[in-house]
User: What shape does this take?
Amino acid sequence: MRDENLAWSISSFFLHPSSLVYMDTMAEIINCPACARKLHVPESFYGQTVQCPECAHQFVADPHASSVQTTPPGPKAPPQEDELPRRRRPDYDDDLDDDFDERRPLRRPGIPHRGGTILALGIISLVIFPYTTVVCGPLAWIMGNADLAEIRAGRMDQGGEGMVQAGRVLGMISTILMLAGIVLLCGMVGLFALTAH
Assistant: This one.
């Protein structure tokens, strides 16, 4: 039973022309004793029963027979269509038409974020500290809180979350520094008033 299965697998191997042409292992050309057809037999089948695909005659593949010719391994099989690397399309649109392009990301749903504005307010409130902090610091903090709530709820574009968060933090820092400065200034004025009397 094992020999019959092996003979069947050998015959199915030889029935495909692609397996006759493209081999990766060293193969011997053995003539079928019944019909004299030339068969390529891989090294792994030496000494086993094989079947001729032409006349279905079964015989033992003997590499030392007088009718044996050695052939070097054949060329690699050409890659299937699925295995071929796909050429990448250029990123630019050379014909400038208005056709839909699948590679372009679609606009994110929701309201556009105000990350650039909030970040600019936060930076201005820290850089020009005492003069703009009264307006820009609290404004960046309030706008940042509102926009972060909208982004996390999914109603605003999530692409600007980092800028909104950074502007909010800068607004918080400048506002806290401003309030601490006001408290310190009031304390110093009160202390000066007490010591003056």
